[in-house]
Amino acid sequence: MEFRQSNKLSEVCYEIRGPVIQHADALEEAGHSVLRLNTGNPALFGFEAPEEITQDMIRMLPRAHGYTDSRGVLSARRAVAQRYQNLGLEVDVDDVFLGNGVSELVSMAVQALVEDGDEVLIPAPDFPLWTAVTTLAGGRAVHYLCDEQSDWAPDLADMASKITDRTKAVVIINPNNPTGAVYPKEIVEGILGLARRHGLMVFADEIYDQILYDDAVHHSAAALAPDLVVLTFCGLSKTYRVAGFRSGWLVITGPKQHAKSYLEGLTMLASMRLCPNAPAQYAIQAALGGRQSIHELTAPGGRLYEQRNVAWEKLNEIPGVSCVRPKGALYAFPRLDPKVHKIHDDEKFVLDLLLREKIQVVQGTGFNWPTPDHFRILTLPYADDLEAAIGRIGRFLSGYRQ
Ligand code: PLP
Known about the structure:
Keywords: Aminotransferase, Pyridoxal phosphate, Transferase. By secondary structure, the chain is α/β, with parallel strands linked by helices. Helix content is 37%, strand content 15%.
C-alpha cells in the first residue's frame, strides 16, 4: 500500500524550507558547519528578545493553560487595536484576530475568500507563502512584476494588465521580503486605486513595518484606504525577535458590511483551530505597550543598519553582481548578471554553493521570480560573518559555470 500526497499539493511550492535543506542537514550530520542564510530567524544570529516580553510571558504562564477565545485574548487584541488606532484607523477588538504567526493567518484569510479558479495578485518576487496558500486553496496566483530599476517598486501597469473578472484580491508586501523595498506613498496609493476600481480585497503583509533604514517611511495600506476592505498582517516574529513564539495578528478595516459573509468564514476558520498558542498571546501586550523598539538596531550605528550596509556594499563589489539598497526588512536580493554568470538553474546554483562553501541561500525562483538570475541573502548575521560569507560567495561565483 502506498500513500501518496494529495493532488492539491502537486502545484504547491515552498522553497525557503525546500529540498536544499535536506542537503544542509546531511552536511551538518557529517560534521560540517553550515551558515544558514535561508530563513529570517533573528534568534539564530544572536538577536535577543526584549526582556520585558519574555518576562511577561513567563509571568502569565500559570494563567495560560486553557484554550482562549478563538480570535485571541482580549488584552492582546486591545493592544493590537490601539496600535492601529494610533495610525488614525477605526479599529476595535472585534476587528482583530490573533494567530500562530502571520503564516497561519495568511492561510486562513486566503482560504476564507478564494473559490476554485479565483485569482489573487501577488508580487514577483514574493514571500512564497502567499502563492502557496492561494494555490492550495484552489486559486490562481497571478504575479505582478516588481521593477528592479525602480528600487523594486511594483509595476502598476503590469498589475493593471493582469486584472481579470476572476481577480478577487491583491497582496501588498511592504516592506518587502525578499527585496527590502519600502514602497513610496504614490505606489501604495496606485495599488489601492486599482483595488478600488476593480472591487478587490487588499491583503497588506506589513510584518516588517518597523524595520526601516535611512529615510524610509512606511505607508500603511489600511490608513491610506479607509474606504476599502483591507486585512493588515503583522506580528512579533521580526520586530520583537521572537519568531519561535508564533505570535501574529490580522486587523480588518474598511467597510466591513461588505464582508459580512467573508468574516463569518474567517471566524469559523479561527474556531476550527481552537485558538492560537495561549502563552505567546500574552507576549503581545507587553511587546506593543513597552518602551522597547527596534529603532536602535535600524538607526545609523545599529546592528541591523550596519549589517544591511555591509551586505549591500560587499554584494555590489562582486563582479557581475548588483544589488538594490534594501530600505527595510532583513534581506538583500542581488542580481547575477546573465552575461557574466551563466546560470540556467538557480536551485542547482544554490545547491552547488551549499556543497562547496557550506553557505545556504535561497534561489530567486523560490520567490516566484521568473528568471534564474537572483538569490536572497539575510542581513541578520554579524557584519564580519556577512562580509566573510559574501567574500566566499564571490570566490565561488568567479569559477562557477553551469
Ligand atoms: N510575511 C512575510 C513577508 C515574511 O517574511 C514572513 C516570515 O519570514 C511571514 C509573513 C511569516 O511570519 P510569522 O513568523 O509571523 O509566521
